[in-house]
Design a protein that fits this description.
Elements (H helix, E strand, L loop, with lengths): L2 E4 L2 E3 L5 E7 L8 E7 L6 E7 L4 E3 L7 E6 L4 E6 L8 E9 L2 E4 L3 E5 L2
Parallel strand pairs: 2-11
Antiparallel strand pairs: 1-3, 3-8, 4-5, 4-9, 5-6, 7-8, 9-10, 9-11
């Protein structure tokens, strides 16, 4: 199972980015697919999660600014990030969760700076 993230980059504060996570298998073989982020010296934190039953949840710090969505035909989970702040700077990772274990992508760097 592979998960591949893309879409990161450098953006000014207030800007937007749309991250993509493409899975090598159907996204419905996962109980959930989530986006996490990590900055040096800090633990990886949950940003947003999309459950197979359609439920979603978000970290408080991104509610109202980030939106998680999916396209089952493209086996892709997206993270639309609007009104970005410098504190959103991190490596963003995609994680697929199954009862048998978790599968992580390699991450994509997001830098928010003027």
């Amino acid at each position: 199972v592979n998960l591949v993230e893309s879409g990161g980059g450098l953006v000014q504060p207030g800007g937007s980015l749309n991250l993509s996570c493409v899975a090598s298998e159907s996204i419905f073989t996962f109980q959930s697919i989530a986006w996490y982020r990590q900055t040096p010296g800090y633990l990886r934190e949950l940003v947003a999660r999309f459950f197979s039953n359609g439920e979603k949840n978000y970290a408080e710090s991104v509610k109202g600014r980030f939106t998680i969505s999916r396209d089952k035909d493209k086996r892709t989970t997206y993270l639309q990030m609007d009104n970005l702040r410098p504190e959103d700077t991190a490596v963003y990772y995609c994680k697929g969760h199954r009862m048998s274990g978790d599968y992580w992508g390699e991450g994509t760097q997001v830098t928010v700076s003027s």
